[in-house]
Amino acid sequence: MIKTAITVSLVEEARGGPFVLWDGVEKGCETAADLGYDAIELFAPSHEAVPVDTLKGLLEKNNIGIAAVGTGAGMVKHGLSLCDPDQSKRNAAKDFIKNMINYGAALGVPAIIGSMQGRWGGDISKEQAFDWLRGALTELGPIAGEQGTFLIYEPLNRYETNMCNTMAEGVEFMKSLDNGSVKLLADVFHMGIEEDDPAEAMRSGKGHIGHVHFVDSNRKAAGMGHLDLKSIADALIEIDYPYFVSAECFPKPDSLTAAKNTIEAYKELFPR
Ligand code: LER
Ligand code: MN
Fold it and tell me: What does the pLDDT look like over 36-45, one tens digit per residue?
């Protein structure tokens, strides 16, 4: 069964970014539960922002789950990436992600590497950057795998990275890792920019996709843009995608409307 999730951001530096709920984790859990989501997806400043026991208590109290934890704060707050020319910064990026993997694993969920993947350019060749990224994921994936979860790597659109932009590139990269502990994040916003046919791309990711950011062309809530979301949802159903569709979209026109519009669209597109 495909489950539903909504993003909760605790990262002040990311204000204006594509996260729906911004009023703290307690309120985020309450709102998500009230609207009928299965889970929250947490974007936190670090692994220390909300202690595991505190979060477990909030999730239990609201009878809601957690889908995944993001690592983007490593980039947004500290400028860390896995392809930084400076080795000490690459190591700091890995440490930040390791801590987030362990935090997620204590909750039974994966961590997501999106913007922290970085990019190639300047003195750093494409080959060098991919070697660093491959090395990092090869080291980090099993840390999640040994704790019963996995690590998620997210292809992004060309304006955010020049590493993997498409599902095909992501799948090829996954195969080059020789590592069963890393899965792909299919973000429908990025796919709307990069893929010839997002539904076909979803089908080609069968078995590799571990999380989906299911939003519209303009990164607003599902249904508020011009993507053919029905064909994309049908593709996910067809490949027996077993994880979450999550609202990583702008809080437009406001958080509550984006949250309500999303869950209405999810109920229609992913009937139970
Ligand atoms: C993160 O999930 C993502 O999609 C990037 O665009 C960072 O905002
Ligand atoms: Mn995303």
Answer: 999 999 999 9
